[in-house]
Structures are given as C-alpha cells and as structure tokens.
Design brief:
six-stranded mixed sheet, 7 helices, alpha/beta, binds magnesium ion, four-stranded antiparallel sheet, Rossmann fold, binds adenosine-5'-triphosphate
Length: 257
C-alpha cells in the first residue's frame, strides 16, 4: 500500500499490517544543537492484539515515545507509519482524523475537562467524531456507563473532575480512551494513581478488550504490577530501547512469530 494514501481507506485496509511502526526515530526538543535528545534511534512495531509495555525510569523518554506513536508530536528524524500511512506526509487534519479513528490515548496527567461530568468526558471522543443520532447517542451513553461501572465508577458518572480524586480521574481517562473502540490504546502510566484493586480492574479490562476485539495496547509504566498481562516488554534507558523481551505464553492474537 502507498503510505501516502488517503486516511479514509487506511483504517479498513490490510488488517494484518502493523498498527504503528517506528523506524530509526529520534526526538530532539528545542533545536538540534542545544536541545534535549529525548529518543535515540528507536525501532518499534506494535501489531494487532499486542499489549506492549515500555518500562523505564523517570525521564527515560516513555512519554516522548508514546506521544510520537500517538501522533501527538512529530519525530525529529526517522519514519513513523500508522495503519500503513506515512505520518510525515499527512496534513494536520488528516493526522487528527487518523488519530481519532484509530487511537485512544490515556494522558499521564489525564487531561479531563473540568466543566464536563465524568460521563461527558468519557463520551467526548464519540461526540467529536460526528453528530450522533438519538439511538446512537443512547447506545453511547450506555457504553460510557458500562465502562465507568467496569472501572468501579458507577456512582460517579455525574460528578465533575474537581470532585473526583486522582484514582477516579485516572479511571475516567481510561474509560474515555476505550469508548470509541480504538484499534490501538496508548496509555501513559495508566495505573500510576491506582491502588492494587483498581490496577487489577484496569488490566483485566485491557486484557478483555485485547481478547475480544484484538485491541492493541502500548503502555508506559514504572509499575511492575502491570507486567503479568503484557505480551511484550521494552526497556527504555536514556532515550534508547534496550532489552526486548517477549513474555512466554502471551503471544498476541494471530501472531506468526
Ligand atoms: N516538551 C519538552 N521540551 C523539552 N524537553 C522535554 C520535553 N518533554 C520531555 N522533555 C525531556 O525529554 C526527556 C524525556 O522525557 P519524557 O517525559 O519523555 O520521559 P518519561 O520517561 O516519560 O519521564 P516520567 O517517568 O517522568 O514521566 C527528559 O529529559 C525531559 O526533560
Ligand atoms: Mg512520562
């Protein structure tokens, strides 16, 4: 497939193609001479049905890597291909469209909208996509409430973020990333504010999405509690990917490797 083709045909084309593929990618913030070289020569591919964990200490480049894979930031060097489209060739609008169609993002700092209720925050990706018919809107509300319930937030659907604690806000952000059934969920330290029980709820939900829908996950974490569910673990150290380990017995759906 031509990687410069239109976004419209990309989402359905070649379901076996990698969802996201980074080749020889560098990220430098603030100019190449005096800037911060946050990522060095990154090669990474995420396929359908994988749960990939990116581990690394504070400042190792986890958020930078996720922002590049999630089309929120451009690479300084190297190529990023998402759903067979070469991202650097896309217009801003096409890139936003591709991100909206394909990717659900859990931000490290949640990025909830304070003047919207928990349910409205969760519904946002669907409301941004298109004007929903009445029946579709009812179904979207039901799915938002289902996700909030699965994350232990059934009684908080009508609460505004300022009234929620950090654990509850983080779970609202997770529900928002899943509402539109994205093929790829990119989650930046999604359990950093959760206790053991809530972490298990989240990882069980991720695993169910993976098993039932083939959803892929790219998760940044410093939290070893997440690792029992992942199919592949990558280590970042000072912006370089180091060891790559595939956990035995946890192959992605349909994997040939
Ligand atoms: N917008 C930016 N401008 C300048 N430097 C940045 C920017 N974002 C990140 N950096 C720098 O890039 C490096 C990697 O940062 P990044 O946030 O990707 O790491 P991280 O692994 O996510 O850290 P943490 O565990 O604290 O979330 C750090 O040196 C950081 O200071
Ligand atoms: Mg980070």
């Amino acid at each position: 497939m031509d990687p410069t083709q239109s976004v419209k045909t990309a989402a359905s084309a070649r379901p076996s193609a990698p969802l996201v593929s980074l080749a020889r990618v560098h990220k430098v913030y603030g100019g190449t001479l005096l800037g911060v070289h946050a990522l060095h020569d990154i090669d990474l591919q995420v396929d359908r049905g994988e749960i990939v964990a990116v581990c690394g200490p504070c400042g190792s480049g986890k958020t930078s890597l996720l922002n590049l894979a999630g089309l929120l930031e451009p690479a300084t060097e190297g190529s990023i291909v998402v759903a067979s489209l070469l991202v650097a060739k896309l217009s801003d609008q096409a890139r936003a469209e591709l991100r909206g169609d394909l990717i659900g993002f859990v931000f490290q700092s949640f990025n909830l909208i304070p003047v919207m209720t928990a349910r409205e925050n969760v519904l946002l990706p669907l409301l941004l996509r298109a004007r929903l018919e009445r029946a579709a809107l009812a179904a979207a509300h039901a799915r938002a409430d289902l996700l909030l319930g699965e994350l232990g937030l059934a009684t908080h659907a009508n609460d505004y973020p300022p009234r929620l604690d950090a654990s509850q806000c983080q779970r609202v952000a997770i529900a928002r990333a899943l509402i539109a059934r994205p093929r790829l969920v990119i989650a930046d330290e999604p359990t950093s504010r959760l206790d053991h029980g809530a972490t298990r709820l989240v990882m069980d939900l991720f695993a169910r999405q993976q098993q039932e829908h083939g959803t892929a996950f790219l998760i940044a974490t410093r939290d070893q509690r997440q690792l029992s569910r992942v199919t592949r673990t990558l280590q970042l150290h000072e912006g370089r990917l180091q060891g790559v380990a595939t956990l035995r017995g946890r192959r992605p759906l349909g994997a040939q490797r």
